Amino acid sequence: MIELKNVSKFFGENHAVKNVSFKLETGMIGCIIGTSGCGKTTTLKMINRLIEPSSGEVLVDGMAARDEDPINWRRKIGYVIQKAGLLPHLTIKENISILAKIKNRKPEYIDERVQELMKVVDLPFEEISNRYPKELSGGQQQRVGIARALMENPPVMLMDEPFGALDPITRNSMHDEFYNLNQKLGKTILIVTHDMNEAFKLADKVILMNHGEIVQMGTQKDFTEKPANEFVRSFLAEHLNA
Amino acid sequence: MRKSKFIMSVFFIILTSSTTLAKSADKVKIGSKIFGESMLISEMVAQLLEINHGLQVERKLGLGGTKVVFDALTTGGIDIYPEYTGTGYIMILKEDGLRDSKRVFARVQEQFNQKFQLEWSQPLGFNNTYTVAVRRNDKKFKNIENLSQLSDKDLNFKFASAHEFMERQDGFNSLIKAYRLRFPPSNITSMQAGLMYSAIKNESVDMIMAYSTDGRIGAFNLKTLKDDLMFFPPYEVALLASKNSLKKFPALKAVMKTLAGEISETEMIEMNDQVDRLKRNIPLVAKNFLIGKGLIDGDVQTFEEESLISFFKNRLPYLKKLFIEHMLLSLGALFMACLISIPLGILLTRKEHLTKFIFPIVNTIQTIPSIALLGFMIPLLGIGYLPALIALFLYSLLPLLRNTYEGIKGVDHNYIEASRGMGLSSFQILRYVEIPLALPVMLAGLRTAAVIVIGTATLAAMVGAGGFGDPIFKGVATVNTRLIFLGAIPAALLAILVDKILGIFEKIIVSPGLRDN
Fold first, then answer.
1. How many domains does chain A have?
2. Which of A172, A211, A164, A208 is nearest to A30 (CA)?
3. Is the ipTM of this complex over 0.95?
4. Residue to test with chain A: of B415, B422, B442, most A Cβ within 10 A
5. Which of A237, B200, B298, B391 is deepest in the core (most CB within 10 A)?
6. Domain ranges, ordered by start, for chain B
């Protein structure tokens, strides 16, 4: 479960995020959507404390972020970013297991877990585990990024435009796969995107932000049947392809 | 494991080099200036000490010009060297006026004793003063015997002298003033003393500032013009030693006595000719002379021409010694530079404001010509391994520091943020992400530094630190091409070899994921 209570972030006089509150129940997928500069990525980064909030409270599974050491906090939260952020000097296996290695997990355990995860994200272990990121396609890299975030089996995952760099066909099939995957895994996942179709397709809860504030929150049905205001209506009209 | 072994071996090298430094304290250190005559006399002193007194001797022959060798003597870098009374009188005491040889000698003897705690031996017997030399068959000088015959005339011929003569008090500027010689400035060149004789022989220049005992005056059919105004003081050679050294090694005093008055002008000219023109081996010429004079026992040896290959082969122990000296200097300097530059470079990426102070300093050091940088070290640290090591260390700082800084700075911010987001600490990001990604750039800096250091280390011989520069300097001073090759070829090969080795090292430690396809 992810919960934000009146979270704000100011950079000097200007607010990037203002009084954001929402709750994402365990096992649910949430999507924060909005135009660039609306504060969606800042909101996401305040959850894993890459950015510290100016005020308000962030809770994950009932624990308050500010009570924890930031490094331990981040290790409990899977993090996936655009283009996967794979480290080019490490092999696929090393990329997936970097955190496990730092935590001194046994090599046998790491081996087994990497094999298992690569199966989960549908990557051939034998063939690519010893290759380097540059030898993989964009879609494959993105799967590695997800496998890496799952390595330490975090209850919660944050994803910043995870499918943004993929071509439309790959993206579509990744959406389906990802949705089915989480039916099995049951993680609480918060995704930042600017793609309305993606949000409606994946999310149990869609959060639309503008100028650092939440404009509307709810299911696809809530948005299409009861748009909160004119901004929502025009945003949908502009971003929702038939 | 591999890394720790490497570090251990570098420590070992530095340790052993410092113990060899400690051992050399028990040896008599003999210096000389960088030309054949000075080296010959020092070699005689060395042989007398070894053979007649059973002392261990460290030869620091061909250290450099007067300033370098004299500084070495006063700072204890050497115990004894041959000096000329006129040089002591004019250049070191900065006095002038006296021309009588006995009075000049008495003056330097008294003054050196008081001012520097140094003692002169009695003169060894010959006077090697400056003399103006021209080609005997040059029509321009057909009826000229005295230098004053050239006064107040426009002299449109070329003049060359040694670097040292251009700079010194009693040197070129005073000479042309005294004789009212009118040379256009473009006709005046200064060069390595040894090269002047070839220059006048092949008519690149018409007049040189020769030494009166130089073997090539006769051999190249030159004539000398008489110093009829008595411009030059006497330059009698004598041995100069510090009082401390004389106390520590009483045999030095005995040798100073043995050689006093033993070498005539004719004998010196003959020996200089053997060394400078015929390229005969200095220790052998010195030994034959001492045997001939009955100063040591042994058989006079004859000289055979060596082929270039046997020239190298016969000097393998010397080459091995040079190689070790060169490597100790280069590796020591590089190791120290890595130890400082890499952490400092990383620190600078964290504390950007420090770059404003650090980089200008390091850049400035790099712009100091390497010869000058080594020269600065002499008054601070004396001569030998340490000043050369420090100078080379300073020289290798910039490429290592800049590449470490640029390499780490150049790491894509996305990788760092992805790693932070995963829960890596700052140190873990440095260790697992930034350094491995910056490694190709950092290693390129190391390769640049290594090639610079190995090349520049040839200049270390200037401050008596040995290395492949030793035969190069001696070779240039005595115009001995083979001696130059003896240092230059291995130095170049070593630079190429080290660059290749570092290239292989790079292939091993840089991730294949970072290589261009």
1. 1
2. A208
3. no
4. B422
5. B391
6. 25-126+235-305, 130-225, 316-514
